[in-house]
From TrEMBL:
Family: Belongs to the class-III pyridoxal-phosphate-dependent aminotransferase family. ArgD subfamily.
EC number: 2.6.1.11
Keyword annotations: Amino-acid biosynthesis, Aminotransferase, Arginine biosynthesis, Cytoplasm, Pyridoxal phosphate, Transferase
CDD domains membership: OAT_like
Additional facts recorded: May also have succinyldiaminopimelate aminotransferase activity, thus carrying out the corresponding step in lysine biosynthesis.
Top-level enzyme category: transferase
Record-given protein name: Acetylornithine aminotransferase
Catalytic activity: N(2)-acetyl-L-ornithine + 2-oxoglutarate = N-acetyl-L-glutamate 5-semialdehyde + L-glutamate
Entry keyword annotation includes Cytoplasm: yes
Pathway: Amino-acid biosynthesis; L-arginine biosynthesis; N(2)-acetyl-L-ornithine from L-glutamate: step 4/4
A Gene Ontology cellular-component term: cytoplasm
Free-text cofactor note: Binds 1 pyridoxal phosphate per subunit.
Length: 391
């Protein structure tokens, strides 16, 4: 008989009942150190007092009105995002995949209104992940996600990762945009080198294409800058955001320049919940922390410590680990042993990590993780690695 919850997830035998900062407490009382942060969502850790206050204050005032009316918390969060980024305008969604939907619609509408309706194609890359909606899986195009769900949304051109010749050959008069994650998350923590991101920007400028960045996982301070593309010194035309922006409240956003968003006039897109008072009150509190240069400086310090420790760990367990990859607090351990064995051994050592493709174990701690907690996490990873070697 089918379970009452649709069985689409392979869940670990763990049930968490409480969270405190970087810690998750299991139903049996065990305290796990959380290097997963709900897949890069709990940017300020669990039960951060500022987020609890923002949520409960708003809950007592007003939960939801719909976008038929003005929403001051939404306006405030949009103003903060516009102030802190390349963007001129913001649309709020409830998830990353909804942000992908709008990025695709906005791109096509832009060229349609500009009198180039034939420009519908969006170039994407192998190993990417843009969510599980029909546009999201069509954009990523992997067999694993798309099999049996056809017909897929047409208009995506899938290219290998890191193949410049394939890229230039793929651009035609039908091309509208290039869509890419500055750091692939699900694909195995693969950062795009800064010079490649610059190269993509140049290519888009040369051919009049829009550059769409999916910063759902790598954005909101995760790499040590507010958004990952800042490291390369370039700006996108459209950016997808979600995960960290709500700190655990379901919230996403599409940020865009006035030029890219030019087709999105009244009535062209909408969402019942997107940008609702509760989500945006929390989002404002998250932004106030994460956009603070002192906060980002601390992220870079703890990221440096974690990275250094991981390099040492790889050196002392060469039979378990191959290498460290990633940037900021978006790090991956490329494993030699099956990453799921390391994941399970880490559970035994009371440490939460997240698997990714390419036999990588992801480390995505809350951005608020302390230096002591980083040291403790490294100790627990060492215990896990010993257990895997001994098996
Ligand atoms: C998680 C993720 C998404 C999808 O977000 P959902 O909120 O699960 O819909 C899209 N893109 C990237 C890069 C992601 O990591």
């Amino acid at each position: 008989m089918i379970p009452s919850v649709l069985p689409t997830y392979a869940r670990a035998p763990l049930t968490f009942v409480k969270g405190e900062g970087s810690w998750l407490i299991e139903a049996d009382g065990r305290r796990f150190l959380d290097l997963g942060a709900g897949i890069a969502v709990n940017a300020l850790g669990h039960a951060h007092p500022a987020l609890v206050k923002a949520l409960t204050d708003q809950a007592q005032a007003l939960w939801h009105t719909s976008n038929l009316y003005h929403i001051p918390q939404q306006q405030a969060l949009a103003d903060k995002l516009v102030e802190a980024t390349f963007a001129d305008t913001v649309f709020f969604t409830n998830s990353g995949t909804e942000s992908c939907e709008l990025a695709v619609k906005m791109t096509r509408k832009h060229f349609f209104e500009a009198g180039q309706p034939e420009r519908v194609e969006i170039i994407t890359f192998e190993g990417s992940f843009h969510g599980r909606s029909s546009a999201g899986i069509s954009a990523a195009g992997s067999e694993k996600m798309t099999k049996g769900f056809g017909p897929l949304l047409p208009g995506f051109v899938h290219l290998p990762w890191n193949d410049h010749d394939a890229l230039t050959a793929a651009i035609t008069d039908k091309t509208a945009a290039i869509l890419i994650e500055p750091v692939q998350g699900e694909g195995g923590i693969r950062p795009l080198p800064d010079q490649c991101l610059k190269g993509l920007r140049d290519l888009c400028d040369e051919h009049g294409l829009l550059l769409i960045l999916d910063e759902v996982q790598c954005g909101m301070g995760r790499t040590g800058r507010l958004f990952a593309h800042e490291w390369a010194g370039i700006e996108p035309d459209i950016m997808m955001v979600a995960k960290g922006i709500g700190g655990g409240f379901p919230l996403g956003a599409v940020l865009a320049t006035e030029h890219a968003a030019s087709g999105m006039t009244a009535g062209t897109h909408g969402s019942t919940y997107g940008g609702n008072p509760l989500g945006c009150a929390v989002g404002c509190a998250v932004m106030d922390h994460v956009a603070d240069p002192a906060f980002l400086a601390q992220v870079n310090r703890t990221a440096g410590l974690l990275r250094q420790g991981l390099e040492g760990l790889v050196a002392s367990h060469p039979e378990v680990f191959d290498s460290v990859r990633g940037t900021g607090l978006m790090l991956g351990l490329k494993c030699k042993a099956p990453n799921t064995d390391v994941l399970t051994a880490a559970y035994d050592a009371l440490l939460i990590t997240v698997p990714a493709a390419d036999n990588v174990l992801r480390l995505l701690p809350p951005l608020t993780i302390s230096e002591e907690e980083v040291a403790e996490a490294l100790k627990r990873l060492d215990t896990a690695a010993r257990q895997v070697s001994a098996a």
